[in-house]
Design a protein that fits this description.
Helix content is 67%, strand content 0%. By secondary structure, it is mostly helical.
Length: 88
Amino acid sequence: MTQDSEQIKREFLYPIGKFNGDFTPQRLAFNANLQEFAQKVSYLCALETNGKISGDETYKEIKQLWKQLKVSKKELLDDSSSDDQNTP
């Protein structure tokens, strides 16, 4: 594959939306982590829907991704006052 087709493939598989809001490097990094979380959850749901992985495995994977996102939020935004109690 050529360099251009690799880039197109990467952009298709891992799209990144435009950042809106008050810019800080930490918010930008968290936004990227949030988009990656959403993309991975989408893939996991598609795999489960098509019978490639079990519902239990999907749940465990999403729960692990959620924990990673919470750590990212804590490290980047340092906002422990709004910890979400609704974990998957």
